[in-house]
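Researcher: Checking consistency across runs. Here is FAD-dependent oxidoreductase again:
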Amino acid sequence: MSTKKIVIIGNSAAGVAAIEAIRERDNASKITVISDESYSAYCRCLISNYLAGTIDENGLIYRDKKFYADNMVELLLEKKAEKVDVKKKNVVLEDKTQIPYDSLIIATGASSKMPKDLKGVSKKGVFAFRTINDARDILNLTTVSHTSCILGGGLIGLKAAYGLKKRGQDVKIIVRSGRLMSQVVDNIASSFILKRFQDNGIEVLLNSDVSEIIGNGDMKALKLDNGKVIGCSLAVIGKGVSPNVKLIKETDIKTDKGILVDEYMRTNIENVYAAGDVCQAYDLTMGKPEINALWPHAVEQGRYAGANICGDNLKYAGSFGMNSVEFFGLAIISIGIFDGDYETLSYADKDKEVYKKVVIDGDRLIGALFVGSIANSGLYTRLIKERINISGIKDDLLDENISYAKIKNLVKEEKEKIYI
């Protein structure tokens, strides 16, 4: 009997978690991991800390090469998977090498969105902010550039702005919409975040867009849609990410926003699984498949995919939007649905820079938003994830003293086998 061949495309949170889950169950199968980067697995969510100078490159690495050796993994770095052939059951690399598989996990993650229609976007000095190499290239330019412009007011853009400000740059954020972090917080929370950035010397230009990046080869300035020109030689594009699905375009693997998976992390093609930022799994708050591109979800999905490849048949309950970040000492947590036509309870203290909000649908908590004070955020996450009836504690949800002890009688023992 030949050795089973498991191929994992992607070497970040989901891919590494899949390796660990497989090796907990199976030491015989051959595991091959394909990555287009040159590094062992690193923590992508800490890139802004590296940019800020609070950690070095070694601090980003969370699985070194010894991990792959100890787990008998063939690690192919700097190898780009060009396409998947599900009929022949192999992965074709950019150099046309074919890697055969019996089972496949697609954990290719996502890439930064670059506005292709923006004139001058390919000039030197314009960067994405997704990888170690992106951060390294940005840092190299800060030695000669003193003004940095960030295009976009979402998490990626704000993390870049924070890191560059910590490096002593004069930072300007240019935002098309009327507020910061519009995809993950409401208007009130956004106003707290805006104030904190402004208080730390960052200029924020709302309701503004860049019409052209000016320069001959190297960028020298940005032209806004109102005609204003801002001189700078470094710009970071923070316009979100897109799942890396190009390599399956010639297959029958079903996609929507990302690769569609069932509760076992399976695609519609036998023996092909997907996990992490590339996949679209069930969202507990939305009630339909959504992409929730977050590190903890990628880890969990990768572990389920790895376990199920080994025959465990474990059901993944689903994910939901969840963001946790801190800027200049201001902590922000957004969980689940933060806006919409639902019952809400909220509390705001502008002087203390504290804001709390919970979103309720019937007798279920479906969202929570905290700025400044984030105590017990794990409790709210559990209430949402386990769909616990909160009607008996609704009036206590904004109480700082709420604790697990207060709701323990509401929590039922899980009947089904849940893999964590």
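Researcher: Does this match what you'd expect to see?
Model: One thing to look at in this run: Residues 412-420 have pLDDT under 50 and may be disordered.
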